[in-house]
Amino acid sequence: MITAEQKPLDEIREMIAPYKRILVLGCGSCVAECAAGGEKETGMLASILRMAAKMEGREVLINEKTLERQCVKDFVILLDDIIQDYDALLSLGCGAGVQAVGDCFPEIPIIPALNTEFLGETKDQGLWLENCLGCGDCKLYHFGGICPLARCSKHLLNGPCGGSVGGKCEINPEIPCAWQLIIDRVEQQGGFERLEGIFPPKDWSKKQGLGPRRIIREDQQR
Ligand code: SF4
Ligand code: SF4
Question: Reduced to 3 states, what is the DSSP secondary structure of residue 44?
C-alpha cells in the first residue's frame, strides 16, 4: 500500500485560508490503513479546522466526505452532485488520489492534507515499513522475498556491504541488515543457487526517465 502522514496543521490552515467553502475529502483505502486519511482522520481534521475557524471568528463552511478510493474515477464521480457547493477541496488522499480528483474537477483548487511517503506494509500496530521501490522488474524470488533495493540502506543487489554487525545495518543499527535477512531466508529455503548470478544495476532510465509510467491492459478496457 501507499503510506502517508498528515501535514502539520499550520501548513494546512495556511493553504485553506483563502477559501470559504471547503470539502475535506478522505480516502478509504491505503491512507485509511495507515491511519492518515481514512474516514476517522478526515472527521477529526474537519472538526479541528471548524473549531479553529470558530475560535478565530471566521465564517467558513467545512464539510467532510470519504470516498472509497480517490485514485479511481468511478468513485471520484460520486462528487459530481455536490462539488458546486465548494470553492476548495482538502484531500486526505495520497499524491495519486489528489491528482486524480484534481483532474476530474480542474476548476476547483485541490489542497493536499497529507505528505505521501512510500510503498510499504503494516508491520505492527502503528508501524509501517517501506519494502518496495516499484522498480518495475521484481526479483523477489531470487532474494528470498526480501527486497534489497528498498530494505538495504545502500540498495545493494549483489550481496552485503560487509559492514553489518550482529545482523544490524551499519548505516542504521536500528534496522536489520537486509542482506542478512536475505541470506538467512534463502538458506532456510535451500535456494542459494538463486543468488549465484550477477544482478546488473537497475536501468532506471527505462522506468523513470520517460515521464510517468503506464500500465495498459487492453483486456481490461471498456
Ligand atoms: S524488486 Fe523490490 S523494488 Fe522491485 S518490484 Fe520487487 S519489491 Fe519492488
Ligand atoms: S549493512 Fe546490510 S542493509 Fe546495511 S547497507 Fe550494508 S548490506 Fe545494506
Answer: helix
Write the pLDDT tens digit of every residue in 78-95. Answer: 999 999 999 999 999 999
pTM of the model: 0.92
Which of ligand 2's atoms lies nearest the C-alpha of 151? Answer: 3
Strand order in the sheet with 21-27: 61-67, 21-27, 88-91, 110-112
* Every domain of the chain and the residues it spans: 2-118, 135-208
Pick the CATH number of 2-118 from 2.60.120.590, 3.40.50.2300, 3.40.50.720, 1.20.210.10: 3.40.50.2300
Render pLDDT for 13-45 as a digit per residue (tens, 0 to 9). 999 999 999 999 999 999 999 999 999 999 999
Q: Which ligand has its closest atom nearest to the C-alpha of 158?
A: 2
In angstroms, the CA 180 to CA 191 distance is: 15
The protein residue whose alpha carbon is closest to atom 8 in ligand 1 is: 132
At 221 the pLDDT is: 87
Q: How far is the CA of 133 from the centre of ligand 1 (A)?
A: 6
Q: Measured from the CB, is residue 152 less than 6 Å from ligand 1?
A: no
Residue 32 corresponds to which cell in the numbers above? Answer: 485509511
